[in-house]
Design a protein that fits this description.
The protein contains 14 helices and no strands. The chain is mainly α. The termini are far apart.
Length: 237
């Protein structure tokens, strides 16, 4: 297990813990990371991370801080996720994602957002939506559509939220926000551009178009899954 300073109140301590977590072998993550997420509650981390993030523009520190948040988002419990929202941590990273051009930092941020928005934490969706989540998601997708990892996690978020909206039906007004599905309709051209690109996310986008916007046929999805070969167009083939 990883020892954690009882305060964890400085950027140096946060970066040191992030470095230790990155060195954990993949097959040990499921044991080590939940323990770290649990111990973070006993430190000053949630209380100080917003102020430290705002006052330190050093890229590596921001990568480290969001990496810890990423581990909390994935391995923490519902109370941990509430901390991320109610202590304005999600608001902070939503703001930062518009200005950063660093792929590692953005990967951490969208991973945190994806996990907070997961189907197990829908109770938080209204709060996050009010922070501008939907517009920021579309912005990030437009900006990072060529990055398979980032775009893939954004699309996972979109699918989760759209599925939730569809399950609510007429009760969607309880979110006090425009439906994400309706926002996507206005970004139809962007989504179609992705289906015509060389990214691995194009099939995911095509499925979203078919499932929620009814604007692409299943046969077209199959064509993306099984692209035509030259042999298919030869005489007698």
């Amino acid at each position: 297990m990883i020892a954690i300073n009882s305060k964890l109140g400085t950027k140096e301590e946060i970066s040191s813990l992030a470095t230790k977590l990155r060195s954990v072998p993949d097959d040990k993550n499921d044991t080590v990371c939940p323990d770290v997420a649990k111990k973070l509650k006993q430190t000053e981390f949630y209380s100080v991370v917003v102020d430290l993030y705002k006052s330190n523009e050093e890229l590596q520190f921001r990568r480290d801080a969001t990496y810890l948040l990423r581990r909390v988002g994935y391995y923490g419990d519902k109370e941990d996720l509430k901390e991320l929202v109610h202590r304005s941590i999600v608001r902070l990273i939503l703001t930062d994602c518009v200005y950063s051009t660093d792929a590692d930092l953005i990967t951490n941020i969208v991973t945190v957002l994806r996990d907070v928005c997961s189907k197990h934490n829908r109770v938080l969706l209204s709060d996050i939506a009010e922070e501008g989540l939907y517009d920021k998601m579309i912005y990030l997708l437009e900006t990072w559509k060529s990055n398979d990892v980032i775009a893939g996690r954004i699309l996972s978020m979109i699918n989760t939220i759209c599925s939730y909206e569809m399950s609510l039906g007429e009760d969607i007004v309880s979110l006090n926000q425009p439906r994400l599905v309706d926002i996507l309709r206005n970004k139809h051209q962007l989504l179609r551009e992705i289906t015509s690109s060389d990214t691995s996310c194009k099939v995911t986008v095509a499925i979203l178009l078919n499932k929620y916007l009814d604007s692409i046929k299943e046969s077209e999805i199959l064509q993306l899954l099984i692209p035509p070969t030259n042999e298919m167009f030869t005489e007698g083939g």
